[in-house]
Amino acid sequence: TGDPIFGYAPVANGGLEGDYPIVLTDGTRITFVRENYIPSALSGWDSLPWEEGKEIVVRYMDGINTVQKIYVKLLNGGFYGINALQFADLRHAQNSCMALTQSMYSASWTDTLNVALGEGVFVIDPVFRYVTGHFAWNDWPEVVNGWSIDAETEGRLFCFRQAGNFRVIAIAINLETGWDCEKEYLAVGFNREKVREELFSKLKSRSEKEI
What we know:
single chain, alpha+beta, 4 helices
């Protein structure tokens, strides 16, 4: 096709001597190969069995109600545990995110949840930085980017997520002022109701001090 093909070699855990593949990609087609297979893969790039590969569909938003798709083909060569999208050309999706969210309101808690606030709430993929969804201010879903969301209290959010095997991070947010309160807890014995009350109480105390 004339498109350039890029190669990525592992540098950790023994590098080429370990059981890790070389990644070859032209942006929309990706294959994992062993070092000795690189010449034949490059010379026969268009003839590789792409039709047998896994199709990955990246859905992203470039407008409030406009969803676009990027199609990526993957031949994993029997290798697993590697996120192939690290080697896909997602620049258009990422540029659309920047154009869509650059003038939107942000705060420390929006960065933590990976959302942008404007005409509703835009959800941003925390790894690849493209917009994955949109919803109204008063219609928060139960989960956003791995955070459990409790929006039952008007004007406030309570959010929490598991962080490793032993910790839970919780955040209380005042949507009117943009203030937030974040605290880390042990996963064992975590009680969402008690934690929510504790963090909401801290938000209330801060509001009273500011008056």
